[in-house]
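Build the 3D complex.
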Amino acid sequence: MAHDETRRNFLHRSGQAACAAAIVGTGAVLARRACSGDAWAIAPNRCVNIRLGVTGADKVCSSCAEQCVLALSAVRAVNQHDRCGRCCICPAYFDVRSQVGPDGLPTKKLCPRDAIIRTPIGEIDPYDPLNNFYEYTIDDEKCNGCGRCVMECKDPAGLGSIRLEVRYDLCLRCNQCSIAQACPEDAYVRVGPQPAPAEALEGGHA
Amino acid sequence: MKFRHLQTLSGRGEAPDQFQVRITALAVAADDRLFALGDRCVKSFSSAGELVGQFDTSDAGWSIAADGKTLWIGMQGRVVQVDFTGNVIAAIDDPGRLGRVTGVAVAGDSLLVADATHKSLSLYRDGKYAREVGAKANTRGFMIPNGVLSAAYDRQSETFVVAHPQKHRIERYDRGGELVDKFGRFGHDDPAAFGGCCNPTTAGVTPAGIILATEKAPPHVKAFTADGKFLAMTPEDAFDPSAKNQAVAADKSGRVYATDSVRGTIEVFQLTDASQ
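Done.
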């Protein structure tokens, strides 16, 4: 009798354990499947390149540029033109700490990939370069989201018109995003299955 | 010359000498009384730094200038002349032409009004619009990414002094509104130059004719001779690193007042010989 009791208990416990394992496993698979399509976004109040209080291209974090599984990161810089000052000497375009040339402009550019295009607006004054407005656009084919321009454009040095954005049309939506794992500030966050609508993306790229 | 820090006035708070939200402009009267414009009021301080008066303004003010025994206060679409207790004497209401008036300079019957909304300078004579100033540039006016256009009057040279941030220079206009001089250049390593995208941010003049120019990122006040030779710069830690668009004014004793937009304070400096 006691032998039957022990056997029944053993079978009962084994069944419970098997059911629990099946439920947990199924849950994990479903959760993983549900999250695999999730979009990612950059939290501006955490990202060191975007948040206020940290300035200077020497402090830039290049995790987005270096850690993405794509050859050219899905994170790109976008210039919001209605906020841009159209400065003659844009600190995101020029390396403003480089030597000043005979034309009064810095001799080096800031972007290591030469991904910012500078175009004079309207009639050009050939005698005084300071007398012109300039439009700055990001070359989408070159930008790798390194964030140098974002760091230099933000307040108080600049107007903060350039920002970093996850391009949803490029992002593979990896469940284990390598940028998120590498981000030192936990600024690369999962935002759910529906990507947030891009704000004023039109015109932000060449 | 050098700037020596003397004291800190006001600050952010609810004490009588403090501003709760913002401090936007400074002016020094002929008797060396300091007038500070902020929130919706004007507070006056003695040269020793004590609060000696206060009156409310009809709207949020953006700029202030002292002339004789009156003050001119720039607001949205208008400039109001008041006495030192706040009684309105006259007003220029020109909302169709003027936006946010962030700079006012007075020269006798002439008033130069700096309008940050339209990025333009308007000259008024006897309270009537005379002409736009500085509109000949290809850029169709002033390039002010910082959102502030400032102006001051230099009694020594009888010219208006204006900071043009994106051109990295100080410009002088005669009382007729013609550009007569300019100085300044872009540069980061030379203290005489203006760095970043858009400096100097604001300008002022001491009674002795020394030009004061403020810079952001990092914030400074720089002093130049009338012909643009660099004289001195405030210490690195004088302002919060994120402060910008500092208002600046000076009295006959060589005291220079500059606001810190982040802390809400007025920093007081003495402009002295380097040997002192």
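Chain B has one domain: 2-272.
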